[in-house]
Amino acid sequence: MIFCFSGTGNSRYIAQRIAEALQKTVIDLNARIKDNDTTTVDTGSDVIMVTPTYAWRIPKIVSEWMAKTKWTGAKRIWFVMDCGSEIGNAAKYNRSLAEQKQLHYMGTAQIIMPENYIAMFNAPQVDEAQQITAKAEPDIQAAIKCIQKKQEFPVPRNNLYDRLMSGPVNPIFYKMIVKADDFKASEACTGCGLCVRKCPMNNIQLREKKPVWGKNCTHCMACICYCPTEAIEYGKKSVGRPRYQFEKLTGVK
Q: Which stretches make up the 4Fe-4S ferredoxin-type domain (predicted)?
């Protein structure tokens, strides 16, 4: 079984590619987390967890969901993580999650995909995003082959920088950076409510037909990137930056 959490589509695309190759089912973790659904899942023996990289680990909301949810039949787990540049030492923490679930840890694969974190970085234009996605193809295929053969992924890089970012920097980043305080909607907002529906944390409400953000944000960028009128800004940091949706990459389905 394949579990997938995705903010703006990168991880969803990778999960779908793996699902097609393995003829497996993809479970949408966005929906399960949004619904607070922690009912038991009959996974079968092989579990593939596909997620983006948040602060050099898998998203905290995903690891928390894993801890709360019972899996039956699971024996092995592979982690596939996409990122704009690097996953740090995420593998160490993924191994620990596997041990907590009493599963054989089959490794962590890094897939570099287009950047979407416009609260801090520039998302690429369509041409560049397509090039990055095409360059990721061999890594996606390599991950699929390992899973098909029930082989462990190659051990990822693990230097001092990686250990620092996934270790002490991760909780600091969440505490200091991962907040919804700077999200605001301009007069261009139509009150369509798509941001409310896209938020996996139920952190957005419409008040007088305008979105209002709470304190429970994971910085998935779904609200700002999927807004049909680009009415949402993250302070001044997102002004003028292209919004990123994987689905809008021309020629990529």
A: 179-209, 210-237
Contact 43, 83 (CB under 8 A): no
Distance (Å, whole) CA 50 – CA 199: 18
Query: Could you say which architecture CATH assigns to the domain 2-173?
Result: 3-Layer(aba) Sandwich (3.40)
Under CATH, which number does the domain 179-232 receive?
3.30.70.20
Phi, psi of 44 (to 5 degrees): 80, 180
Note the pTM of the prediction, 2 decimals. 0.96
Within 10 A of 157 (CB to CB), how many other CB atoms are there? 12
Q: Which residues pair with 47 in a beta bridge?
A: 77
pLDDT digit string (tens) for 177-220?
999 999 999 999 999 999 999 999 999 999 999 999 999 999 99
What are the residue ranges spanned by the domains of the chain?
2-173, 179-232
Share of the chain above pLDDT 90, in %: 97
Question: End-to-end CA distance of the chain, in Å?
Answer: 22
Q: By the 8 A CB rule, do 27 and 81 touch? A: no
